[in-house]
Amino acid sequence: MNSLQNPFLSPPPPSRQNRTSLKPRKTPKFTITCSVKPDPWTPSDGNSIKSKPYKRDPKKRLSDDDARRIINAKARYLSVLRRNQGSQAQTPKLIKRTPEQMVQFLKDDGDGHIYGKHVVAAIRVVRNLSTRVDGSYDMRQVMSSFVTKLTFREMCIVLKEQKGWRQVRDFFNWMKLQLCYRPSVIVYTIVLRIYGQVGKIKLAEQTFLEMLEADCEADEVACGTMLCAYARWGRHKPMISFYSAVQERGIVPSVSVFKFLISSLQKKSLHTEAIYLWRQMMDVKVAPTHFTYTVVICSFAKEGLVREAFETFYEMKKSGFTPEEVTYSLLITLSAKHGNQDEALPRNEISENHS
């Protein structure tokens, strides 16, 4: 029995692991999670405004991955168009300004912050030539410091800001010698407008023919500028001839041009021509204004056309315009003169208007 008590044969003592395993275990903590999971695009904080892709590195690239590159390329393309004044040039949208901002805007324009100081300097240099005798200067020498510094658009600005027709003539001739110049109906319209304001009809006609020879198709603005120049200076016969040529080309002047032409003819007592332009205006479906209605009713009355005068009067009221007292008096006088007792509505309307 003693041999059986040999430590070799006796069972090994319990290890430390077994001792520790005998200690009571702590109660495990369970975390309860909701089974409803958010969509993979919603962040963990629940803010659905910020989104994240479904996969960090998707195998397929999205179609708008190059959006930033496309936007930048389009911005550069539009910038080039604005600089070169292409056929599809994009112009900035109109901005609403407060009176204080408008004062600052005009001040910056005077300081050369809008057009650039070199453009303002060119405008002043050309304007100062008005104090010198015509033919005593050479525009090439005067503008020698601005060669290759002005773009086509900036040269148009310098031309538009001139007030004397001689400076416009000389600067326009200098413009045509520059490398960046190209014939455009815009620059020709600027020259036509300034010539028409001072009564240089002959120069305006030569400029218009030069525009056509330069393969610049005349638009309604250029044709309207020539028509207004004829009307302003009483050249009514060439005005009617020019209008016939404009009509053959299919160009329709604006309502402001028609108003100016009809008013000019009516002031010179050319009522037949005024009525002719009025009917042409109605044929091309240009909406008349209150002023054109009043003028043409006067022309109908002066020509003794009672029916046409009253029809135009009723059409004027139907269009929402309120006739003036002069128009009522004119129609009453016309009715009494021609013995038209049926047309008594204007007299009744005048009495209602004064009551």
UniProtKB/TrEMBL annotation:
Region feature (Disordered)? 1-64
Which keywords, in A-to-Z order, does the entry hold? Repeat
Q: Which GO terms describe its biological process?
A: chloroplast-nucleus signaling pathway; mitochondria-nucleus signaling pathway
What start-end ranges are recorded for coiled-coil regions in this protein? none
Its family remark reads: Belongs to the PPR family. P subfamily.
Q: Which PANTHER family match?
A: PENTATRICOPEPTIDE REPEAT-CONTAINING PROTEIN GUN1, CHLOROPLASTIC (PTHR47936:SF1), PPR_LONG DOMAIN-CONTAINING PROTEIN (PTHR47936)
Provide the protein name. Pentacotripeptide-repeat region of PRORP domain-containing protein
The organism of origin for this protein: Papaver somniferum (Opium poppy)
Starting at the broadest rank, the lineage of the source organism is: Eukaryota, Viridiplantae, Streptophyta, Embryophyta, Tracheophyta
